[in-house]
Amino acid sequence: MNTDAPSARPSGVRGPGSGVGETWGFRGYRALLAERFPGMRVRKLCLQAGFTCPNLDGTVAKGGCAWCDNRGFSPGLQLPSLERQWERGRDALRRRHRRVDGFIAYLQSFSNTYAPVEHLRTLYARFPADFPECVGLSIGSRPDCVPDEVLDLLAETAQRTFTTLELGLQSDRDAVLRRMNRGHTVAQFLDAVRRAAARRLELCAHVILGLPGEGDDAPERLGTLLAGLPVASVKIHNLHVMRGTPLERMHLPELPRPEYVDRAARLIARLRHDQALQRVVADAPDAILASGGWCHDKQGVLGDLRRRLGSARPDQHAGVPAAESQELAQSVA
Fold first, then answer.
1. Which of 28, 56, 79, 244 meets the CB 3.0–4.6 Å disulfide criterion with 64?
2. Contacts of 199 (CB under 8 A, 6+ apart)
3. pLDDT tens track for 100-152
4. 191 phi/psi in degrees, rounded to 5
5. Cis previous bond, 128, omega within 30
6. Which domains, from first to last, does the chain contain?
7. What CA–CA distances, in Å, run from 52 to 222, 239, 284?
């Protein structure tokens, strides 16, 4: 289930259009969407398009990511058609929010670029025309599933509708990625970002805090790495354990809520002012959640994070200066 980071008000902004405000201490996704869709309130609507992953079907590995149980990402979306999913999701979002002016179709589950390019072309061509009030497309995938021909197709798609490519990094250590059965490397992520940015695609990066072996300085490393990349937005996931997954069988300790908040704040402190946070905490239904339930209290976690960021010295949450981030970007190009 998604938890969109709330938008920060522009008070206290440290740079033009940064959106970093005193209310939350970080730039929220709603601030980014307000720039992309002036005067509109836009929400993401999750869709299941029937894909799989190369670390699930045996191409690079079997069994999928150690934490992966797809029910935890978009429960209830196993519907017979995209049209029915769209209708149901649109109705649910309208009940939840007082005002919604448009929807971004979010192809979320599995790797939504992992198919022959002509199949992808047929699918992506349906957006936005076939779905009422659709104003854009967000495509979740893996860094090893975006060959040049797919990126070319995404660039074509972005010419006619707002398009975001979401790529999972998860960890900046290959040893951690191997243990979690990701089936790709950090170098592959950096290469995918470089090639996508060369086509001027808008990018979102996913990372997880609390992975075994990530190291105490993981927040600083990840934040600094992301600040140096042409990434418009970031999703930070807490590592929660779902029943029946390889991660549950590892019997790993879960990060307590205060420690997760501290790590998330330290990562956010390293991001650029213009980078928006799409998510800072995620949960899963109790029926499949094996770890503690503190992730359900999203507003409480956000409040803890706001207080943690507010208590830091100004230089601890000022973000990475543009000049420094450009140097970092050049170092991974």
1. 56
2. 151, 152, 154, 155
3. 999 999 999 899 999 999 999 999 999 999 999 999 999 999 999 999 999 99
4. -65, -40
5. yes
6. 29-332 (3.80.30.30)
7. 27, 22, 20
